[in-house]
Amino acid sequence: MSIDNILLVIILIAVLSLLYALIQSITIIREEEGPDHMRAIANAIREGAKAFISREYRTAGIVAVILAIIIALALRSEGGPILAVGFIAGFLGSAVAGLIGMLVSIQANVRVANRARKSKDLISGLNYAFSLAFRGGSVTGFSVVGFALLLMSVFYYVLRNPVLMSGLMFGASLMSLFARVGGGIYTKGADVGADLVGKVGLGLPEDDPRNPAVIADNVGDNVGDTAGMAADLYETYVVTGISAMLLAYFLHLPEIYVILPLLIGALAIIAAFIALPFVRLGKSKYIMGALYKGLAATVIVAGVILGVLFYILKLPSGLLVSAILGYLLMALMVIVTEYYTSYKFGPTRTIAASSQSGAAITIINGLGYGLQASFIPAIGIIIAILLAYYASAGTLDLASGFSMGVFGIAIASAAMLSLAVMILSIDAFGPITDNAGGIAEMAQLPEDIRDEITDPLDAVGNTTKAVTKAYAIASAALASLVLFTAYLIAFESYIGDSTNLSTLLNEFLIYNPLVIVGLIIGAVLPFFFTSFLMRAVGKAADSIVQEVKRQVETIVGLLEGKAKPDYGRAVDIVTATALREFLVPGIIAIVTPLAVGFILGPIALAGVLFGVILSGFPLAIMMTTGGAAWDNAKKYIEQGNFGGKGSEAHKAAVVGDTVGDAVKDTAGPAINPLVKVVNTISILFLPAIISASLLMIH
Amino acid sequence: MSIDNILLVIILIAVLSLLYALIQSITIIREEEGPDHMRAIANAIREGAKAFISREYRTAGIVAVILAIIIALALRSEGGPILAVGFIAGFLGSAVAGLIGMLVSIQANVRVANRARKSKDLISGLNYAFSLAFRGGSVTGFSVVGFALLLMSVFYYVLRNPVLMSGLMFGASLMSLFARVGGGIYTKGADVGADLVGKVGLGLPEDDPRNPAVIADNVGDNVGDTAGMAADLYETYVVTGISAMLLAYFLHLPEIYVILPLLIGALAIIAAFIALPFVRLGKSKYIMGALYKGLAATVIVAGVILGVLFYILKLPSGLLVSAILGYLLMALMVIVTEYYTSYKFGPTRTIAASSQSGAAITIINGLGYGLQASFIPAIGIIIAILLAYYASAGTLDLASGFSMGVFGIAIASAAMLSLAVMILSIDAFGPITDNAGGIAEMAQLPEDIRDEITDPLDAVGNTTKAVTKAYAIASAALASLVLFTAYLIAFESYIGDSTNLSTLLNEFLIYNPLVIVGLIIGAVLPFFFTSFLMRAVGKAADSIVQEVKRQVETIVGLLEGKAKPDYGRAVDIVTATALREFLVPGIIAIVTPLAVGFILGPIALAGVLFGVILSGFPLAIMMTTGGAAWDNAKKYIEQGNFGGKGSEAHKAAVVGDTVGDAVKDTAGPAINPLVKVVNTISILFLPAIISASLLMIH
Fold it and tell me: Where are the domains of chain B?
């Protein structure tokens, strides 16, 4: 089969993925929405989500147009216009995929609640509600991966040169930065603010309709967790794919190797199709188990197809080993995250127990476990790197310069990322059930329906979010590592013919002061970047607290439930704060690599690229894992342990949970786009940096 | 003047430094201790401190003897016995210096309180108490630096080979690990436990004599802040000095360059002698200002002497610039830390204000500022590295391999460290005044004496501790960087003649998978290491809480003040817990570099050495700065802001303060010895690793 034909098959599979998403969307929207009062709540959430997204997209769009012009002009001798078109395409692909996922989520949420309401009995109700929520989530999974794969394969089909595709990567990065960071500040500003007012200030339970911030909170789940995660994994998917293609291209490997990352992506979609029927609740009602079954089936089917494919195409078995290492790494991340964040295991239970000694000990122990949680994943990544390199290169020796070894690492990363189709389906399930739970609460559905259907589904959403976040971080780290290697190899190829290469490569020695300085800048960057996000959450929360106080004072009968709060204004205020607070960290992420590149040169910049991964990875894991553990420790107490709801332990756990919100949903996940945007912008502007940097050597 | 004579002058200055410490100790002990009830309190603190130290030293001693035997045997072909003797000498020097400092502190504390009690008027009382406390602190400063300089110069005088002195470094590292980590767990376990029981549980004020944990808490100040910090800076001082000497040696520079780091240390002692009279309170009673005056005078005098010395010895001006950069870096660390942790400035005030919204927002904002605080120091370090390198090498190009540039960085580091004599004097002032405040409280001295003398002195102790901690972290980072360079250059020299050097150096390229893997391990290490410390504080605090509860239940009349609590048992319990909890992190710090070295080889190990600095630096700054800001935010509220003591804001700030205790006094500072021990053990065992590692290349 010719390369052209293989590419056409890949394109076809990407289209099938989008078609599946479309059909699912239609069947979901055909479901009944439920009675008026539920629809009213759902409509409020929809309006809020659309208002946020349209504002966010408008701002992001303006920035994208400006950057596209800069790219077209600054890189005009390196195919600037093509890069700019790719940049816009990558950006729009992410925007559209995220939007589709979110639009379906905000339709599915109320329908899940309605299915729960209408169920004949609790068991079939749970089954149907679960399946509907998962189908809703799968729209995000298949549309994100579909768009990403379609764009990459069409661009490659037309251009036949991955270097000209680096615009796609940066476009995806930019959208991801907006969606993850802007959306992250929004979602947790609203959540923390709603909690503070509702729980701390006015004594209202969660999701109480009298709380003016409650809709803003539910909106946050969709814009942060669905659209944000969608953009994040879309970006990582594109970045991994293209940087692996770049490596194959620069290493002058046969073209089948260049399109191998795309092929791995396509076969994972097939595997996911086959695995879909495995996602069903057994008699045990173990919801998380049903999702894991689907994931496991995807991995197994993908592994089998991959093996057959390697056999047919006569590809080296070292790369097959590398790909399987990528799958295993996904499994490891899931297991470790489960251990640290589920209240079935020691860490979360210890945090819950220590809450009896007050909030300070809750925080100390949560930080303690968060600090610990990156160790095993790091060991896993290390083993995967070494084995993938060794399996592909046959040696750990780098004496001969770049080799198949680095491509092996890239293939491991591409295989891990190919599973995003299923991971995202599971992830987007979370906000739907979270919202469904909120709607059930606000619409005052019968208690048994909430206790037996919507609440258990909502609780699982917490775990899915933690697990997929850990996967997203690990794959972002691995993808950036591949991108970093692509940067170095691109540097080599850009400069190779014009000067003494071996002298120049010496500059990348780890004890070069420029490399050291770059690494230090890179390592400090995730700390500096997230510092703004932490404080932004505080500010956004404060803005909504003030607004709720104002509404309580000015709207007569609000607390008695006689008058309706102005949900829309609360949404508007957090939206404005979130986008304003996004400004500084957003600029930092984009300007730092360019400033280092143009002032200190491409060698220091290489240090930055890797430094940001080095500290960003453990910091992000610490934040997301510690945060999820606090969250579930609170849930564990609410189940009646250590005094249950309203006890001193519960109050302490609420403090932990609120801190956890900021670290796990805003600061921690935002490190992903930071790491990637720093890397993509550097590789895109590398030719300009080489020719214009102040401290360029030689 | 011959090298021999210069060395003798340096030795003489080191002896003078120790003599000064001896004379000060005698004059302090001659001061009156005060009435019986004050002496009883002081005696309880002394007994507790001695009990902890003797247990800690016994355990550390056993480990040291075992390691000395291993060193003597494993490195027998590289002068093992000499290295082992150096190791023991370095270890004992640290132990003795720390012990002297602590013994004087626990004599000075009650005498400061007594001076305050006996003062004719409040102004002269403050003056005298301040001067006595500073003189007490200066004993630590001059004895630590005196011992360190004496050992290094005598060893060099005898051996004339810095390679044989690397045992000294590791000995200092081992003691520092015990003192910082074991002492750190002890001090904050006791503090947090005492706070939880005293403030949260039983409603007793701080330092109330009815609280059985109160003596343990005061003991903690001495064993953690005095002995711990003394061992930490002793280690950094020795490590910086010897690694700078190693660089000069391996670069084959003239011998005057080899002893230049010692000379810089000696002249800083002279400068400190001259600066001592500047440490006096003006009419403004601005205590911190008096300390800063002394520091500024030391820097200015040292700079002048250094300039004269460089002129006489005809040393290159580039190295003078490097040294002055080291002084400036100290000043930068002081200013930045002041900004982030003093309640005169925005960050701490913002945290205090946000406490009105509850403990969660206090934590979120404190973490936010902590994450931010490493940025400016990192930029300062980067500029210092680049300028010191450039000033000394005349270029930023590394094409010619190692050069004077790296020695310039080492000299900057040595100059920064030479100021430890004054920094430590200021630092050890803190625990003395902290204890004096506690004794004044427990002995129920008149309110105006506490309000006007002991409390203001105590409050300054907080700032001095934060400032010196930041200095210690930055200098540890810089010292480790120099040590890391020494490791690489030592590697080059060990292997240089036996194989193709340029091929081998290629292995240290930043994109070598072994380097990448090493960097990842190193970057995760500070996170993993501190995770145990965070949880250890929780456990130690819990153990003392349980003990206090037991005493309250079993000792009749305890809470009414009719019966005395069993202070000793409380001390014993925290001591045992602290040393037990030290075990795992201690083993991790020592075993990780050896395991990586012997399994993955010296190239991966180089990655570990630098990786641990890269993430350790921002993490440590985040912890110490964030913690101090929480502490002072609480103090700011206690001054009557945002509702003052007992308000909701105050309760939230207490949570922040308690979390801050664990991060700023246990986990954060423990990163210093981790970073250094990993580096010193690696350089010591490098010859053995080169000959025995499994994955050694070629």
Answer: 3-692
**Cβ contacts (< 8 Å) between A508 and chain B: which residues?**
509-511
Q: Which of B519, B524, B614 sits opposite A520 (nearest CB)?
A: B614
Q: Best mutation site among B363, B374, B621, B683 for testing chain A: the one with the most A CBs within 10 Å? A: B363
The Cα of B381 is separated from the nearest Cα of chain A by a number of Å equal to 9
> Which tokens is A412 given?
């491991």
A143/chain B closest Cα distance in angstroms: 34
Comparing CB atoms, the residue among A398, A511, A534 nearest residue B371 is A534
Q: How far apart are CA A459 and CA A126, in angstroms?
A: 13
The two tokens of residue A416 are 């891990």
Question: For an interface test with A, which of B520, B529, B630 has the most A Cβ atoms less than 10 Å from its Cβ?
Answer: B520
Mean pLDDT of A404-430: 92
Range scoring the smallest mean pLDDT among A544-558, B160-174, B232-246:
A544-558
d(Cα B525, Cα B588) in Å, to the nearest integer? Answer: 9
Q: Which residue of A has its CA nearest to B388?
A: A513
What secondary structure letter does DSSP report for A31? S
List of chain A residues whose C-beta atoms are within 8 Å of the C-beta of residue B611:
614
> Using DSSP, how many helices (H) and how many strands (E) does chain A show?
24, 0
CA-to-CA distance for A199 and A553, rounded, in angstroms?
18
- Token pair in block for residue B385: 């590295």
Specify whether the CB–CB gap between B603 and B515 falls below 8 A. Answer: yes
pLDDT (tens digit per residue) in B528-549: 999 999 999 988 888 888 888 8
- Interchain CB distance below 8 Å, B542 and A357: yes
Alpha-carbon distance of B476 to B381, in angstroms, equals 12
pLDDT tens digits along B403-460: 788 899 999 999 999 999 999 999 889 889 988 888 888 888 888 888 888 888 888 8
The span from the CA of A560 to the CA of A552, in Å, is 10
The two tokens of residue A8 are 């056409």
CB crowding A323-340: b at 16 or more within 10 Å, else e: bbbbbbbbbbbbebbbbb
Scanning B31-79, the segments in alpha helix (DSSP H) are 36-74
Q: Name the pTM for this structure.
A: 0.94
ipTM of the complex: 0.93
Contact between B521 and A382 using a beta-carbon 8 Å cutoff: yes
